Structures are given as structure tokens and as C-alpha cells.
Amino acid sequence: MLRNDPTQYDDLVDEWWEPSGGFAMLHWLAASRAQRVPPAPGPDAVLVDLACGGGLMAPHVARLGYRHVGVDLGLAGLRVAREHGVAPVGGSVLAVPLVDGCADVVVAGEVLEHVEDDVQVIAECARLLKPGGTLVIDAIARTRLAGLIAVRIAERLPGGPPPGIHDPALFVDRRRLLAAAREVGLDLRLVGLRPSVRDLVAWRRGRLPVVRMREIRLTTVLFAGLGTLR
């Protein structure tokens, strides 16, 4: 099986906005990371959403008052994102085609574990942010436990990622990530995430459209990060 296969995002483009489809957990994570985004500081505030896919953060960003700019390599996903109010920009998260200091908030959700150079992505996030701007991330940790849960188990569960979408070799070294953030002037704090078990049961029974993500102390599987550019 080909791992870290980005073509799956285009192949499953019709499922981006299906809460019970192949990208169900991405809906849960989009809602979770939106909780870390502060209200827009002004009428011209910009949020840059790296690897935005089909634009699942759009309804959350709209409520907060930002102009939502989505960056992605997948043109099919960008077309879907545009339909939901996202200003699409085709490009790589390793060299984002936007000017320095253009964003009040940068979101890099579920992307660091899909690139060869996550340190470069963090550098790009810092470059895009205004001083005092906010960085919101989530990613999968580079641990044996994460490889077991996020790949071998999750890919076999309803709502989990499509088979082959992740390569454990690309999962994120948290110490390296924090060091890279400090190097570019970002104060970054990490917390662990897990799905609410009660919500997950209700979702499986069709009683909830989205499963809430709970913060936990351990960051050894799935984690979120909130940072500020000094």
C-alpha cells in the first residue's frame, strides 16, 4: 500500500463535506482547532489556512470575522473550499505564495505529518504571521503508540482516516517542532487530543454530526498547538 498518498484527497473530493464520510475526523479536528482561534482583531483580519483541503474550517472562521484564505496543492479541494467562502490559493505549504506578515492567524492542521520538512512549514507559518499573531496546529506525534493507534487501528474504524493516508515515518518529533518554533520566534504550547468517547458512541448511532475533541495531558498520539509570534 502506498503511504502518505495525497491523491486520496482528490479521489474523495465529494466526501469533504460529508460528516460521516472518509474525512469525518477532519470535521472533528476543524471544529477543535477553531476553538483555539481568537476573534478577529479588526474588520480586515486575515486567517491563512495551510493545507485547507475542502475548507472545513470555513463556518467556524466566518463566525469569528476573518477573511479566510486557504492554501493547498489540491485543486479539486480548493474548488470545494471556494464554494464555502474560502479565498483559494494554489501552492505548497513549504513555500507559501503569500507576502510576509499578511496574517493575523495561521492554521496548520493535519499537515505537518504529511511533509518531509515540518521545520520549514513552521518557518513559513512564522513568516506569514504579523507580530503578536496566532499559530494553531494539530498533528500526529512520532511515537510507536501513535503508529499503532493512528494507522493500524484508526484506519480500520468508522470515521477514521482512509487507508494509506498516513506514513508513520513522517509523524512529528515534538521536541524538534518546539525547537524549530523557538528558532523563528514562536512561543508554542502543546496539548494532547482525543475524541470524546461519549460523543463517538452517539456519532456511531447517528445522533451527533461531529465528535468533540477533548484536551488531555499526554501528547504521544494526537496533539494540538497554540503559539504566538514574538
3D structure, described in words:
The chain contains 8 helices and 8 strands; from the N terminus they run H-H-E-H-E-H-E-E-H-E-H-H-E-H-E-E. The radius of gyration is 16 Å and the shape is globular. Helices cover 31% and strands 24% of the residues. The protein is of the alpha/beta class. It has an 8-stranded mixed beta sheet, with helices on both faces. The longest helix has 11 residues, at 24-34.
Shape: globular
* CATH architecture name: 3-Layer(aba) Sandwich
Number of helices: 8
Quaternary state of the chains: single chain
Largest sheet: 8 strands, mixed
Tell me the helix content: 25-40%
Instruction: Write the H/E string, N to C.
Output: HHEHEHEEHEHHEHEE
- Output the CATH homologous superfamily: Vaccinia Virus protein VP39
Low-confidence stretches: none
Using DSSP, what is the number of strands?
A: 8
Keywords: Methyltransferase, S-adenosyl-L-methionine, Transferase, Ubiquinone
Protein name: 2-polyprenyl-6-hydroxyphenyl methylase/3-demethylubiquinone-9 3-methyltransferase
GO molecular function: 2-polyprenyl-6-hydroxyphenol methylase activity; 3-demethylubiquinol 3-O-methyltransferase activity; polyprenyldihydroxybenzoate methyltransferase activity
EC number: 2.1.1.222, 2.1.1.64
